[in-house]
Amino acid sequence: MTAPDSAAATAKKPNIVKRLYNWVLSWAETPYGTPALFVISFAESSFFPIPPDVLQIALSVAKPKRAFFYASVSLVASVLGGVLGWYIGHALWGSVSNFFFEHVPGFTRETFALVESKYNEHAFLAIFGAAFTPIPYKVFTIASGVFEVALPTLIMASVLGRGARFFLVGGAIFFFGPTVKAWLEKYFELATLILLALGILGFVAVKYLV
Fold it and tell me: Is-contact 24 41, C-beta < 8 A?
C-alpha cells in the first residue's frame, strides 16, 4: 500500500467516538439490547462518552409499544450511575485535594470555597440542566461529590432531569412511531436546550414579577 493509499484508509477509518457510537448502536440488533441499555446508561453517568439515547431510540423504534419501558431502564440505570459519579468525586477529591492546594498556582482554599458555595446555591438546577440537556451530566455528578452536594439533591434532580429526557424520547416514539426517529436524532438536543432556557426564563420572570 502506498503512502497516499495508507492516508486514504486512515481518513476513512472512523474515529474512536464514532466507533463507540456504532458499537452502542449495534446492541439493538442483538437479544441483549435491554441489558446493554442498562449498562451504557449507568456508565454514561460517570465516564462513558456515548449517551444512552442512541440505543434507547433504536430499541424503541423496533418496538414502539415498549418505548416507555426502555425509558424506564435508561432512567433507573442513569440515576444509579449518577450516584456512582457522586461517590467517585467524593472519594477521589479527598486524596488529591492537598496537591492542588499546595502545588497549583491560584488554586487556594479560599477560591475553592467560593466556587463550592456558588455551586451549592444552584446545585439542583445545575444537575437538572445537565441531566436533561447535552451538557455533560457526568461532570456534574462527579462535581456534586467533590463539593459534597447532598446525595438526595443529586438523586432528585437526576430523576427529574433524566426522566424528562428519556420519557420525552419514549413518548415521541410511542405516540408518533418510527417516523419521528430522524427528527429526534437531528433536533432533540437543541430542543432540550430551548426547553431548559424557557424554563429558566419563566423562573426568573416569576421571581421578579411576583
Answer: no
Q: What's the DSSP call for residue 136?
A: -
Whole-number Å distance between alpha carbons of 15 and 136: 20
The whole domain housing 70 covers 3-209
Give 132-142 pLDDT, tens digit per residue.
887 788 888 88
Lowest pLDDT segment from 39-53, 113-127, 193-207: 193-207
Residue pointed to by grid coordinates 487556594: 108
Separation between Cα atoms, residue 127 and residue 119, nearest integer Å: 10
Q: How many domains does the chain have?
A: 1
**Stretch 173-199: mean pLDDT, rounded?**
68
Nearest by Cα to 184 from 198, 196, 202, 171: 171
C-alpha cell belonging to residue 84: 456512582
Contacts of 38 by beta carbon, 8 Å cutoff, 6+ apart: 73, 76, 77
Spatial distance between the Cα atoms of 161 and 208, rounded to a whole number of angstroms: 25
3 state SS of 89: helix
Cell of 114: 467560593
Alpha carbon distance 148, 64 (integer Å): 40
Three cell numbers at 146? 467533590
